[in-house]
Each structure stands twice: as structure tokens, then as C-alpha cells.
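Example for tutorial group B:
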């Protein structure tokens, strides 16, 4: 189980938005948020890491989980990325992620 403190360490406020550090694993069996890796939220996506497909899959997954409109900030060609969650506070993002991970079991 991921602690709230570990989750909070992966993100920070940027005005009314939240920046999340993400570690992406492309080409997975399914797309899912799975935990924390090296100070970043670990996300698996089924899309391959070619032509921006994995980036689009990450944004779609986080948009669904957080009911928001995320955008890629940094790391378009790297596994390590920064995603901006527009209009969501860090507290709201942590609460939604904790709820999502708890529902997964």
C-alpha cells in the first residue's frame, strides 16, 4: 500500500494546477496507475513508446482517473515525465489517486 506521504512527494502545486512526476512503462498488458517508482508516480500503458502513443495513453489514463485535463509538461521522449493537472490542487490529486489505488485492491 502506498502512503499518502509517498504520493504527496510525487507532486507539487503550480498556481491553481498540480505538477506530477511520472515514471512510464510503455507496452504493458494494460494501462494502469500502479504505485511509486524513484519519487515518481508509476504508470503502465499498453501503448508503445513510438510516435507519441504512450504519451497520449498516459494523458488519457490520468484524465480518466483524475477527471481532469492533463497536459505533458516535460519528458516527451523520456520515461520520466512531468504532467500538469489543470485546475486541481495537490490535495485533490492525492485524494483521487489514493481512492483509485484503493479501489484497485
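The residue assignment follows.
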Amino acid at each position: 500500500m502506498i502512503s499518502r506521504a509517498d504520493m504527496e512527494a510525487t507532486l507539487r502545486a503550480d498556481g491553481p494546477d498540480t505538477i506530477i512526476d511520472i515514471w512510464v512503462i510503455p507496452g504493458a498488458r494494460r494501462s494502469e496507475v500502479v504505485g511509486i517508482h524513484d519519487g515518481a508516480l508509476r504508470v503502465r500503458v499498453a501503448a508503445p513508446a513510438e510516435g507519441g502513443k504512450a504519451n497520449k495513453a498516459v494523458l488519457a489514463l490520468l484524465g480518466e482517473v483524475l477527471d481532469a485535463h492533463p497536459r505533458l509538461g516535460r519528458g516527451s521522449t523520456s520515461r520520466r515525465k512531468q504532467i500538469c493537472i489543470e485546475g486541481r490542487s495537490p490535495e485533490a490529486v492525492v485524494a483521487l489517486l489514493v481512492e483509485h489505488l484503493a479501489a484497485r485492491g
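Strands lie at 11-14, 17-25, 32-37, 40-44, 70-74, 80-85. Compare this with the pattern of hydrophobic and polar residues in the output above.
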